[in-house]
Amino acid sequence: MLKGKVEIGEEEVCKILAISKIKLARWVEEGKIPCKYRLRGYYFIKSEVLKWARERRINFKEENKEFLNSLKENFLSYAISSSPVNFSLKGNNIQDVFKNAVEIILNDRKEFSSLSLLDELLKRESVASTGVGNGVALPHPCRNKDLDINNLYIPFFRLEKGVDFRAVDGKDVSLLFFIFSPTPQLHLKTLSRIGHFLREDEFVAFLKSCQSHEQLVSEIKKREQLLN
After folding, report:
1. CATH code of the domain made up of 77-227
2. Taking the domains of the chain in order of start, what are their residue ranges?
């Protein structure tokens, strides 16, 4: 079993999603549902199945509501866990940084248009700096709706060297949370939560020294649980 991952078989998946084994087998064959393979056959990771079904608005059985509620409480760490992270992004200016970040984002979300994504990020930055101070920026596009965003998506990048973002405190930026939200309400909620954590110098110091995606998610989840 993968560390921290709950493995389930086809019977439990069928029970969770209220589907037949024949339908599940067809989804597996067509590559429509996330699954893993080994010599004895295929199996599933419960959290991946629930996430996949939630994104497609597939109804869950009653017993999975506790899991869904936990996602709402820990929405920030959950979003970051399924978004790309890079600890050594290159770039000498804002445009270089955004261009390199967009390349990584597009490898993960191929449905985004490279031109529209980069343009929207630069357009928003030209209106007002997303540098919030203390070496951190929170870039986001002007119009999320043009990018067909269905779920909160928060790639995190740490730059190899600081870049001038015209931040409110005049400091160069080296830490970036890109925010892509399906609704204005969730966007504001995300800004509020990240902003709350950034008020702590200890958290900013952690972001500067963090060495893995898992470590980042774990630290943010721990802080979210304290809030809840």
Report:
1. 3.40.930.10
2. 7-72, 77-227
Q: State which fold the 7-72 domain adopts.
A: Multidrug-efflux Transporter Regulator; Chain: A; Domain 2 (1.10.1660)
**Which among 140, 187, 196, 213 is annotated as catalytic?**
140
Point out the residues of the chain with pLDDT beneath 70.
Answer: 1-4, 39-40, 57, 59-72, 114-115, 143-148, 228
Distance (Å, whole) CA 90 – CA 186: 29
Residue-wise pLDDT tens digits, 62-121: 445 544 554 567 889 989 998 999 999 999 999 999 999 999 999 988 777 766 889 999
Do residues 87 and 211 touch, judged by C-beta distance below 8 A? Answer: yes
Distances (CA, A) of 228 to 8, 92, 204: 29, 39, 21
- 3-state SS, one letter per residue, for 60-83: CCHHHHHHHHHHHHCHHHHHHHCC
User: β-strands 36-38, 41-45: how paired?
Assistant: antiparallel
| pTM score | 0.70
For 181, the token pair is 């939200």
Active site residue 140: yes
